[in-house]
Design brief:
- With about 70 residues, the protein is mainly α.
- About 90% of the residues lie in helices and about 0% in strands.
- Helix 1 crosses helix 2.
- It is extended and about 45 Å long.
């Protein structure tokens, strides 16, 4: 049962990730293309910091959802 719930949660999370990732290219492909080009120009340190901050925000949201919302 645990494996089934875990698998369903992972699949649901992956599905949501793909939906959110696809929204901007679908709605505004020119804006998305410019944004990707701008990100490609960033140095490695800026990308590392941005990635780390995104992971922290995601972890915080999961914590809040698990402990307070659900």
């Amino acid at each position: 049962e645990f494996r089934r719930v875990l698998f369903r949660s992972i699949v649901a999370a992956l599905g949501l990730f793909l939906i959110f990732e696809g929204i901007l290219p679908f709605l505004a492909p020119k804006v998305w293309r410019r944004m990707v080009a701008a990100v490609a120009q960033q140095n490695d340190k800026a990308l590392h910091i941005t990635g780390f901050i995104c992971m922290l925000v995601g972890l915080f949201l999961l914590y809040i959802a698990h402990h307070y919302v659900l």
